[in-house]
Amino acid sequence: MRIAYIVSRFPHVSETFIVRELNGVERAGDIEIALFSLFAPVDETIHPDAALWVERLRIGSAHGAAAATLRWLVRRPLVMLGAFLRVGWAYRRRPRLLWRALLTLTVASAHARTIRELGVRHVHAHYATYPALAAWMCRRLTAVPYSFTAHAHDIFLDQSFLATLVRDADFAVPISAFNLRFIREHAGEDEPTPLHVVHCGVDPQRYAFRPRVPPADGPVRALCVASLQGYKGHRVLLHALAGAGDALRRVRLDLVGSGALRGELEDLAIALGIAGRVRFHGPLTEPQVLAMLDVADLFVLPSIIEPTGFMEGIPVVLMEAMAVGMPVVATRLSGVPELVRDGETGLLAEQGDPQSLAAALELTLRDPIAAGRRVAAARRLVERDFDVRASARRMAELLGSRG
Fold it and tell me: What is the pTM of this model?
């Protein structure tokens, strides 16, 4: 059975979970995946596992999109015009999103032709924004049913077309119970479309469990792996380290990730007087991140909710840190508490609050016995509820049942 996956850009250095799902779904079921990307990639770093999929990738082009749109307009003018009018009306108050949504429809028109030629039986999109919109357009043109996975910003930032995407889908996959409630709230409690929570995950067998706690004295290596964007909360973390007491002065912070805020964060570290304790490593491949996880003493991810509503879903990197045996400190938002259960599998701080974050970090340093108990519980939770192999089998069941 041939399934099409649609994503915005591939490869994307921070979306290792998509590659894991692709590999797992093909292994778990009698399924062959055709991978489509709407736009060309922008990341130079390519994880080894993603390199194999690059060879199979189909990327939209401006020429192909324009030609396909014209062909479909001739063959199915009412469908095409109806789709553009519906999307235009839905995004009429969001002009910055409207042009990209209309562009997506044209790229989807080209992908729809290929999907029909390949004999694809079902289309699945990752993210309830442009990929899901493209899958919706493919369904209108080819009658091939679709589904989508809803992660975080794709549903939190804008819901202009969400109810339509949910209603017309065969099913939708929120990655957390939080997302499921959010979709029901914005798509209608009585929405008949099935919603199936399927966690993103990691393969625990790829992460050797070495339980650890921060050393009682001497330097403590703290690690944060996150793109340098506002919602990741790096500013809060730097302020927490700068304003903390004696315990946190031992912390040496490694920041892994790239982004527009690097220069600003480097300047902030200097201004706060902690530049000597903070190292910026830039983007790293998955094996390089694993090496960083192996030598760190604790993991911290100080995510925040931006004024726009932009925030995390359940970051996979937290699962990775928990799988290898690191104490984790995160913030209380979105689906994070479903993974980092405060006092049980990690500690949670209040988002956007440097004092709360500093207190959680200090508690991790001052009570190693409790930190050790949380480390063991965290590994068990990852194995039970966030194993990518189980998630892939569940996705293969859902996708296979549509064939």
Answer: 0.90
